Amino acid sequence: xxTMVDCPEGVLDQVTLVSSLGFDALGxxxxxxxEGLKDELDRRGMALPEVYIGVYLRDGALVxxxxxxxxxxLFRGTETLFALHVHVEGYAAREESIDSRLVREFTKLAKxxxxxxxxxxxxxxxxxxxxxxxxxxxxxxxxxxxxxxxxLNLCHLLKVEGAEGWEQRVDGLIPQLKMVSIHGADDGDxxxxxxxxxxxxxxxxxxxxxxxxxxxRDKGYTGMFGLQCYGIRQDCAEALRKxxxxxxxxxxxxxxx
Length: 257
Description:
Protein name: Xylose isomerase domain protein TIM barrel
Helix content: 40-55%
CATH class: Alpha Beta
CATH superfamily: Divalent-metal-dependent TIM barrel enzymes
Strand content: 15-25%
GO molecular function: isomerase activity
Shape: globular
CATH topology: TIM Barrel
Largest sheet: 8 strands, mixed
Keywords: Isomerase
Number of helices: 10
């Protein structure tokens, strides 16, 4: 929500807005005031379920954010998900030796997840080292730890892998999925579309996001869904309000199936 038009700047005002619209949680990222955000959400009985974090493989070593240890301590025992977008210096294409190194490093992180009672997952992201769902799944399977998996963001799935045949691509992901991010989007040749068409308020666009959600639930996904809002050029409060209404309609429609 922080990149939308007229989004409140402070943590207090952001939480106040999402609370007033009926949301029960708000995600974060490594660069925001996570302690202040968590405190305000805790005060209101709301959750901070996910933190978006960049990790970098440089010279064979995994470089974590400077506040990594602080984040581990802050979220100890909360089951908060650390969603890790993966970067490898000097490599754009996938390489077996790099994957092997990442698996070793991620195995260490999985042990930290167990120690601190949190969750971790690879976040496949367009134009980053790990950008496909299959790549993320294979890395997560190789780590082989119940607290380490992957996330699925609809906009990156559409941009990287396209809309056609998405069902077959998501089928094998569910055992590793920790979170799914959804939004409105247009259907068609999504790989050639810009983010303005791939990330819209929930309920907008020609892509059937309700069917996407229903398919995952029908296939056994029981985890959380989050709302992706990045770069939506609409009034923040109005876009969130429309998205909340769409989500409630999804819930009603699914219950009536």
